[in-house]
TrEMBL record:
InterPro entries: aa-tRNA-synth_II/BPL/LPL, Phe-tRNA-synth_IIc_mito, Phenylalanyl-tRNA_Synthase. GO terms for biological process: phenylalanyl-tRNA aminoacylation. Its EC number is 6.1.1.20. It is an enzyme of class 6 (ligase). This is phenylalanine--tRNA ligase. The keyword Glycoprotein does not apply. The keyword Glycosyltransferase does not apply. It catalyses: tRNA(Phe) + L-phenylalanine + ATP = L-phenylalanyl-tRNA(Phe) + AMP + diphosphate + H(+). Pfam families: tRNA-synt_2d (PF01409). It comes from Culex pipiens (House mosquito). One of its GO terms (cellular component) is mitochondrial matrix. Keywords: Aminoacyl-tRNA synthetase, ATP-binding, Ligase, Mitochondrion, Nucleotide-binding, Protein biosynthesis, Transit peptide. It comes from the Eukaryota.
Amino acid sequence: MWFIKILKVRPAFPLLAVKPRFLTSQANISEKSIDLYQQQYERDAWTNLTPKIVSHLDRNLHLRHNHPLCTIRKKIVKYFYGAYLSPRGNPLFSVYDNLPPVVTTEQNFDNLLIPKDHPSRAKSDCYYINKDHLLRAHTTAHQVELIQAGLDNFLVVGDVYRRDEIDGTHYPVFHQMDGVRIIHQDKLFERTPELKVFETSYKTHLSQDTSAISACIDQQKQPCHTLEAVKLCEHEMKRTLVGMVKELFGDKIQYRWVETYFPFTQPSWELEIYFNNNWLEILGCGITRNEILERSGVDNSIA
């Protein structure tokens, strides 16, 4: 399976644990508690959510007709709908663009193998409601719950919140789109069944082990995966994303791939485009850490 952060149509009924956001946040901040989306959260030493940030919760710019963010969202969704079709001609990717932005620290960090001491967890980086809840710092926070719901090709679009310094490319409230594609052994090597997704010596991790796993820095592949599986997924992923970039910016756009590190993918890359005489990062992507799939109940697959 592969994963993109940039930004099969299935009906909504499998998503028993995934609730859409209410029309309004119905926010209320008092000295002892914060009310958001019909839930009350007790304030504590971690609380740093401000009324100014709360005022952005109901804007839903990516869903407003004719807003630039809405236009980009529609273009990307249309591209994926056309790029991946079922044998019956239906889009493979389902889209979730209205999930509530309040998540748990488990969703935002633990499920994605982000270490307890990682700087992205700091109060200086996130907007915490309390020690256990925050406004999502990335749409990747919904990845595990959607995989557990049985989805294998999906896009998640939404507003995200980080305590960034404001400049030409940063603002405390911005938008992301995550894409996940899970490919089973039988589909990946449909024509060459002698090839495998996993190394024969691979042993699964304990799915109930939620401790932070040491960083994987081998940019070639994860120890569990065969090189053939990783290279095949890498080729498909990069081809798809370059096609998307050309769809958005034109065939003549200059681009380059840069190796990077994310706690939840290995290997990992960023895609940059040449804009205003500078290279500008527009997305990150990679092969999802297999531990995440294991914990989500997915086996014999790569993402």
